[in-house]
Amino acid sequence: MLRIDILSAVPNLLDSPFNHSILKRAQERGLLEVHVHNIRAFGVGKHKQIDDYAYGGGAGMVMMCEPLAQTIESIPNWEKADDIIYLAPDGETWNQGTANQLSLTSHLILICGHYKGIDERIRATYVTREVSIGDYVLSGGELGAAIIVDSIGRLIPGALNNESSALTDSFQDGLLAPPVYTRPEIWRHQKVPEILRSGNASKIQDWQDEQREKRTQERRPDLFE
Ligand code: ADE
To answer: Which residue from 67, 84, 133, 139 could staple onto 144, CB 3.0 to 4.6 Å apart?
Structure first.
């Protein structure tokens, strides 16, 4: 069982992403539990303040320490979490290898930043891993958190049915996936490759391997190296 706690200042952004398809099934099967926490519930004063001006000046607000600290410490057994992850553009870039690794853990805490980020002392005190989902800036960590939970959740043993085995996914062995086809055999004059209808499993496998290498070479020469 993997428990994931997500800290957010905009929890409504995460209302739906985990309630469909494979992630829904993983939760129904008791493999995954996702809890979203509203940082504002621990805001300071009657305005439930969670951010303030940056020391040193400059545009943009910074998320304050105390609301974040209290939200983290309200999570059962937070000290024993496998990782406390802060989502930020300056983190390590998320990839399939890290998703595989984290799918085998049992408790993750994700902190979504907003504005100019979170007070550095929270990073120093609690955060064990910093993740970026790519070289572009989001308005907050929430959509990144949804991506992380999705890519991890589907890898938890038992989450996928056989027909969607993770072993044949792109990236799983460093190559992209091959092209796929379904009925009808001919659609607007375009035919499904003969080999896929041959019933010869080893020839089909060879063709798919060839296609994967060709695709990877053409589209992601960096992966092919
Ligand atoms: N927050 C803002 N930009 C982000 C990114 N690229 N990855 C993760 N969290 C972010």
So the answer is: 133
